[in-house]
Design brief:
single chain; mainly alpha; 9 helices; 59% helix
Amino acid sequence: MPRMNTYREPKPPPHRSRSHQRSQSQSENSSPLPRNESDYDVPAPEPKKHLSSLEGHFVAASGEFVGTFMFLYFAFAGQLMIINQASDRSILNGAASSQQNIFVALVYGFSLLVNVWAFFRISGGLFNPAVTVGMVVAGQLPFIRSLFLIPAQLLACMCAGGIVQAMFPGDISAVNTSLSQDTSIAQGVFIEMFMTAELVFVVLMLAAEKSKSTFLAPIGIGLALFVAMMGGVYFTGGSLNPARSFGPAVASASFVGYHWIYWVGPLLGALLASAYYRFVKHFNYEQANPGQDSSGGHFSA
């Protein structure tokens, strides 16, 4: 038999209370989704400007200037406070006590740690012509970039020394680096060389070599300076950085006759560290001790 179409009366819409309708209207008004075309008219974010090579060099140089200034400003001020507030002297020769020397090393180490961590995304956080030269020789920094960074570092160290001299009681010449009475010039050169080699090699292995611990590199770099200066402050003044010695010498207009050792020693140390870095890189050091962090970011068990 043929099927017959039956007529069904449409059901009335469900009854909704006024409160339900009001809450539905409010939810529609508060909905984050756009309801008409005008709501889509949101300006697109402007693309970031692409820096030219020259602009990049100037931005990095500005970071080195500000970072080197902040590092040395707080380090010079802290050392000046330690000298002015010294409560004891060495019973051997009347020089600064071992406690003062440790405090000086701590001030410089922590000042470097904090400022490297703050500025390494801008310029690399080098703050040291010797470290800069070491990075160039190791192939981790373009030579043209170093021509912008080193003048910025030297200008910053002079500004830091001059401002500390103007702002703080005491004589900035007190923070000049000098040899102890029993340390010869030749000894001073090699002490500075090996201390700087330690610092530069730590920078190369923790910061230049990328691994899962790279983000902690500023801690290792600051501790490396602290460790080196613990033994170096008494014997050579613990420079490890031509800018650190040059700044207060200019501000105080007082250069010791052997000031050159604070350039030659750190630069020799930078060359030594970068030469060994190239040696281990040439022979793929990752394979000598497998299972450690690889430079490519893949970590084996």
